[in-house]
Structures are given as structure tokens and as C-alpha cells.
Design brief:
333 residues; alpha/beta; VC0802-like; Rossmann fold; 8-stranded mixed beta sheet; 7-stranded mixed beta sheet; 9 helices; 15 strands; 27% helix; binds S-adenosylmethionine
Length: 333
């Protein structure tokens, strides 16, 4: 089955990577935000459930190249429905275009014309307030890509995870959207995922939200206690932050195969006097994990030559004095 994927967030190159990892195949990206892919309904549901930045998934129906005439006369668009919705009574049409680019097509013209064509060819009734099925028309540059809405993400759930929505958080804590995408770069997830520099526990909470067990290690007992109070505050059962040193884990390390982390780099972060870059390099050298997703300032040198292969890097401009490099490291066999 063919699907249209529309992603929507500031980290779209990362979300493209995240989506392809979850689907286990390449997506044909028509623009930065919209792609098409042939895959099973099961895989698409998995994508909708896990991926942070996927906004819409449509069951593909048609792709039409626009020409100048269509802009003046929408009725000249060669539209004919080729797939029918699963629910067979009422429908609505929604026209979506990128906010940055805008469209010369008028939303109401597109929705009325395509709605009329669908109603005529299927006998379905239009219901704009609570339709059984929604037909989405997306303009991506010179193409219209269309299909039946399969899934729409509710970002509110992810926003509720924002550090500011918890009683305790540190100044530089990462936004939950980025923490979720980074956690997904570990896909397929292991049952237990570690953050050895856990802070107030942003990553381990995402791990628990995705249905896995998140263990955090934090050197400051105050921060660890606050992190665990955060987990209680929202009933994150499958999570805990243990007081400890990332270099001396308080359990057998061989059992931990995956790590997602954001080691200390800000001036105010504690390292008990250790040099931040040396701490990270020593930890990387000792780690027995198979896959690590790590965020560091892009200027911080890390030594991955002998042990790790760098599978992916994404640079994220945060402010004038911080650009993060998010890297995916896989152990060399
Ligand atoms: C950048 S913060 C992590 C922020 C975190 N992602 C969050 O959501 O709050 C890094 C954390 O590592 C802790 N840390 C520093 N050295 C450590 C070590 N050797 N072992 C474990 N934790 C350490 C610091 O106390 C700090 O809380």
C-alpha cells in the first residue's frame, strides 16, 4: 500500500531519518516535508505511534502536477478519485499548504471542487464538522498530493512532556520533541535504555512514554531525587534515576545495549571538577553499548575513531554560542 507522510517540526532532517529508521526503508521525499512510501498498514501505525515529528499520514490517492491554468481555473484540474475511504458515509476535504510558501490556490475553491467530485463519484455526503473520513490535499511546490487521512498526531501529548511542565528542571533541558526524536534514532528499541548523564530525566521519560524501561544515572543526588519526583508527578512507572557516576555504573554494563544522552557541557553543569570533553571521551571508550545517540556542542571533539562508527550527524543551532551536534554511533564489530 502507498502512503503520504507529512512531517512538521523544526528538526525535519532528523524526522526524515527517524521515519526511515522506523519504517526500515527509504521514503521518496517530494519536498523537505512531504514524502511517499510503499509499506504495510502495520508499519505505518508503528510510525504514527512512535515518531515525534510526523504530523499526518495519508493513504495515497493521487499526485497531480499543477500548471498555470489550474491556478486560474481549478475545475481544469484532472482529478478523479481512485481509492475509497474505509468508512462509507460522510467525508470532508482539507487543503493544506506549507505556511512559509503559501499557495496561489484558494483553499475554499480547492476544497469545494474536490469535495464536489468525490461526492458525485461515490455518493458520500459532505460533513464538515465531524466527518467519518477526511480527504487531504497537500500542495508541495508544483504538485498536489492527495489521500485519505489515516493518522494525525496530537502534539499536545508531547508538549505536556516539556521540562517546564514538571516541578523540577534544569536551565538547558532539551525540548521533548528533540528528546523523542533522538530516542527514536535507537530504533529498533531494546527493552532497557540508559541515559548515563540523566539530569532531570528528560530522555528516560521519553523512553518510558515509548513503552520501554528507562534508567538514568545522575551524579548529583539532589538532581536525581528531583528527577524521580518528576517521574512520580506524571506517573512514569517504567523509569528511574539512580545516583551514580557514568564512569562507574552501579550495575553490570553488558546488559545495556542502547544509550541516549546529553552529557554535561554548559558552564553550570556539575562534573565534579572533571574536564567535560575528557569525561565524555573516557565514557565513550568504556561503554559496552552497541548503539549510542548523543548530543554535544559541535565544537567538542570526541574520539570515535577506534571503537565507533559514525552513522549519522545532525547540527542543531540553539543560540549564538551553542550549536549541538546530534550523532548516532554504532559499535564496530
Ligand atoms: C546536560 S545535563 C542532562 C540534561 C537532561 N537531558 C535533562 O533532561 O535534564 C547533564 C547531567 O549530567 C550530570 N553529570 C555530570 N557528570 C556526571 C557523571 N560523571 N556521571 C553521571 N552524571 C553526570 C550533571 O549533573 C547533569 O545533570
Amino acid at each position: 500500500m502507498k502512503w503520504v507522510i507529512r512531517i512538521s517540526n523544526e528538526h525535519y532532517p532528523l524526522t526524515r531519518e527517524e521515519s526511515e529508521l522506523i519504517l526500515g526503508k527509504e521514503i521518496e521525499w517530494i519536498t523537505s516535508w512531504v514524502g511517499m512510501v510503499e509499506t504495510s498498514e502495520f508499519k505505518v501505525e508503528e510510525l504514527g505511534k512512535l515518531a515525534a515529528g510526523v504530523k499526518l499520514i495519508l493513504k495515497f490517492d493521487a499526485k497531480i502536477e499543477l500548471n498555470a491554468t489550474h491556478y486560474h481555473d481549478i475545475q481544469s484540474l484532472p482529478f478523479s478519485l481512485s481509492t475509497h475511504p474505509d468508512k462509507k458515509s460522510t467525508f470532508a476535504v482539507r487543503f493544506i499548504t506549507s505556511q512559509q510558501i503559501g499557495s496561489k490556490l484558494k483553499r475554499s475553491d480547492v476544497e469545494r471542487y474536490i469535495g464536489g467530485e468525490i461526492a458525485q463519484s461515490t455518493g458520500l455526503k459532505v460533513n464538515l464538522t465531524s466527518p467519518d473520513s477526511t480527504y487531504i490535499v497537500i500542495q508541495t511546490g508544483r504538485f498536489l498530493v492527495m489521500g485519505w487521512l489515516q493518522l494525525e498526531t496530537d502534539y499536545k501529548i508531547i508538549r505536556l512532556q516539556s521540562p517546564k511542565e514538571y516541578p523540577f528542571f534544569g536551565g538547558g533541558a532539551m525540548k521533548p520533541m528533540l528528546s523523542r526524536i533522538m530516542t527514536n534514532l535507537l530504533y529498533p528499541h531494546e527493552p532497557i535504555i540508559l541515559d548515563p548523564f540523566s539530569g532531570h530525566g528528560g530522555f528516560v521519560r521519553e523512553v518510558s512514554q515509548l513503552g520501554y524501561y528507562g534508567i538514568g544515572i545522575e551524579i548529583s543526588s539532589k538532581i536525581a531525587r528531583e528527577a524521580n519526583l518528576n517521574h512520580k508527578f506524571r506517573n512514569h512507572a517504567d523509569t528511574e534515576v539512580i545516583v551514580g557516576d557514568a564512569l562507574r555504573l552501579p550495575f553490570r554494563r553488558r546488559g545495556i545495549l542502547q544509550i541516549v544522552t546529553d552529557p554535561p557541557y554548559a558552564k553550570q553543569s556539575t562534573t565534579l571538577g572533571r574536564d567535560k570533553s575528557e569525561l565524555v571521551n573516557e565514557w565513550l571508550e568504556e561503554s559496552t553499548a552497541e548503539k549510542i545517540v548523543i548530543s554535544l556542542p559541535h565544537t567538542m571533539e570526541i574520539d570515535i575513531s577506534s571503537k565507533w562508527s559514525l552513522e549519522y550527524t545532525y547540527k542543531d543551532y540553539v543560540h549564538r554560542s551553542l550549536t549541538r551536534a546530534i550523532r548516532m554511533l554504532v559499535v564496530r564489530i
